[in-house]
Design brief:
Blueprint lengths: L1 H8 L19 H20 L3 H13 L5 E7 L26 E7 L4 E3 L10 E8 L1 H8 L1 H6 L12 H4 L4 E8 L4 E5 L9
Antiparallel strand pairs: 1-2, 3-4, 4-5, 5-6
Length: 196
């Protein structure tokens, strides 16, 4: 039954359709061109985003079986090391990132790794988050060697391949998005201050 429902919910990549709000104004070329640009941008991202179809399929399966399916959309870019001075301040006139390195990534969040503030309705939720299982190299690349002293790697005794055993030797960091403060925090157990 779940396989039948899953195929009816998603069987191919979506085709974005963007149209103007007021279609009666035929002379409004700005709105027409803007809607075409947005539609083409969305279509490009759907077709070219790494793992788009897999993330959607995983989240639909998580929705149908345990009851919550979540896709996490993130923006990645490669920063330009020449854009900041020795004090870490941006240099005027130099782009902060390398052009052509921007991409949108979709991650399927395992249902037990998705966190949110308990509330009576979704509109009242002020923060959401997810558990990240990172390798030692990923932690040092992002927060430096000092962060490794405060974060403990996951250790288990089992031999089964449960999610906890899959994360063996990785470091757990919680990524929290706060709607009220409009900030993103990375928190690790055993550390009083956020990582950034």
């Amino acid at each position: 039954n779940v396989n039948t429902i899953k195929e009816s919910l998603f069987n191919s990549l979506p085709k974005p359709d963007v149209s103007r709000l007021h279609r009666g104004d035929w002379d409004d070329d700005v709105a027409r061109v803007a809607s075409l640009l947005v539609q083409r941008g969305l279509n490009y991202e759907v077709q070219c985003a790494k793992g788009f179809g897999d993330a959607i399929k995983d989240s639909i399966l998580n929705r149908l079986v345990p009851g919550i399916g979540q896709v996490w959309v993130r923006f990645e870019m490669q920063e330009n090391p020449e854009a900041v001075d020795q004090d870490g301040e941006p240099i005027e006139g130099i782009p902060t990132h390398i052009q052509g390195t921007e991409s949108i990534m979709l991650d399927s969040v395992y249902w037990e790794d998705f966190l949110y503030e308990p509330a009576r309705s979704w509109e009242l939720v002020t923060w959401v988050g997810r558990k990240l299982s990172l390798t030692k190299q990923e932690v040092t690349d992002r927060w430096g060697e000092k962060a490794l002293n405060d974060i403990q790697a996951v250790k288990t005794e089992g031999v089964m391949l449960t999610p906890k055993e899959i994360d063996e030797g990785k470091y757990t960091v919680y990524e929290i998005w706060d709607k009220n403060k409009r900030e993103v925090l990375h928190i690790a157990k055993g550390r009083e201050e956020p990582l950034d």
